[in-house]
Amino acid sequence: MKAAKSLAAILAILLVIAIISSAAWFLKIQLYNPKTPLSGFLVLVGLLAAGYYFMSEARAGATFPVRRIPAFDAIEEAVARSVEMGRPVHMTFGYGTISSSMAPQYIAGLGVLSHVARMCGKYGAKLIATLGVPEAIATTEEIVREGYYSAGRPELFDPAYNVRYFTDQQFAYASAVQATLIRENVGANIVVGPFYAESLIFMEAGNMVNAFQIAGTARETQVPFFVLVADYSFIGEEIFAAGALASGDKETLASIRGQDIGKLLVIVLTVIGIIMLLGGFKLADYLNWVWKVG
C-alpha cells in the first residue's frame, strides 16, 4: 500500500513537470537551456524518482543491504593505531566554496568526518580537522563537538585545536595542511573530498611521518595518486556511500539503491551504444534531444 502511494507521488511529480513543460511549449517560453540535451534532464528526473521511491520504502520499514567498504572499516583501525602511538588523527575534505559543483563531495567528506569524530571520541584520540571551505567552519566544529560529546569525552574538544581553517586558495591551503601533518606528527591522515594537484602533496607528507593513510575522491584524475600511496582508498563514488554509512540513517542508505539504478542505466546504454556503433549508428545522436520553442 505504501509502495503504491510512493509510486503515485512519483507519477504526480512527473505529471506536473510534463504539464509545465507543455504549457511552456505552447506559450513559446524558453523553459530549458537549448544548448543542453533534454534527454539529460529526463534521466535526472528518473533518477530522482528512483531515489525518492527507495527512500520512501526505507521510511516504511524496508531495509537495503549495502556492501561494506574496506577503506571505511579501516578508519577505526587508523584511529586506534594513532592512540597507541600517542599521535593525533588528521582529516581534511578540501578547499573552495560549498556552493560549487564539488558540493556533493564536500558533504560526503563531512559525513566521513562525523564517523572519524565519533571514533576519536570512542578511543580518546586527538583530532585535527583542517579545511579550506569557509562556509563549513561552523558545521565542522559542530560535527567534531558532537563526536566527542556523544562518546562522553567533552573535555577533549578544543575548537582552536580540533578545527583549523586555513584558506580557500589552493596551494596556500596545501602548504598549510602539509605543514600540519609534519609539525603535529600525525598517526593517521584521512583525506576525503574533491582534490586537485594537492592530493599527492598530502600523501607524500603523510608518508614522511609514517601515518596510516586513508584517502578518497570522486575526481577521477586524482584517484590513481590516492590508490598508489594511501593504505586504503575510496574509489570514486564510494565516498558518497561512505557518507551514507557514516550517518547510519536508513533513508540515506536507501538512496544508494537509487544511485545503483543510475549505474545500471549507464551500463545498459553503454552496451547498446557499442552494439549500435557496430551497425554504423551513434546512440548519442538519438539521445541528443534539444528543447526548442516553436
Give the gist of this structure.
The protein is α/β, with parallel strands linked by helices and 294 residues long.
Chart the SSEs and their pairings.
Layout: H1 2-26, H2 38-59, H3 70-85, E1 89-95, H4 103-123, E2 127-132, H5 137-150, H6 159-162, E3 163-165, H7 170-183, E4 188-192, H8 199-208, E5 212-217, H9 223-229, E6 232-235, H10 238-247, H11 250-278, H12 283-287
Parallel strand pairs: 1-2, 1-4, 2-3, 4-5, 5-6
Helix pairs in contact: 1-2, 2-11, 3-4, 4-5, 4-10, 7-8, 10-11
Flag low-confidence runs.
none
Number of helices: 12
Q: What is the strand tally?
A: 6
SSE string: HHHEHEHHEHEHEHEHHH
- Roughly what is the average pLDDT, rounded to an integer? 85
Biggest pleated sheet = 6 strands, parallel
Give the radius of gyration: 22 Å
- Percentage of residues in helical conformation: 55-70%
In which order are the strands of the major sheet placed? 3-2-1-4-5-6
Strand content: 5-15%
Could you explain the architecture of this structure?
The structure is a single chain. The protein is of the alpha/beta class. The chain has 12 helices and 6 strands. The chain has helices at 2-26, 38-59, 70-85, 103-123, 137-150, 159-162, 170-183, 199-208, 223-229, 238-247, 250-278, 283-287; strands at 89-95, 127-132, 163-165, 188-192, 212-217, 232-235. A 6-stranded parallel sheet has the order 3-2-1-4-5-6, with helices on both faces. The protein is globular.
List keywords for this structure.
about 290 residues, alpha/beta, 12 helices, 6 strands
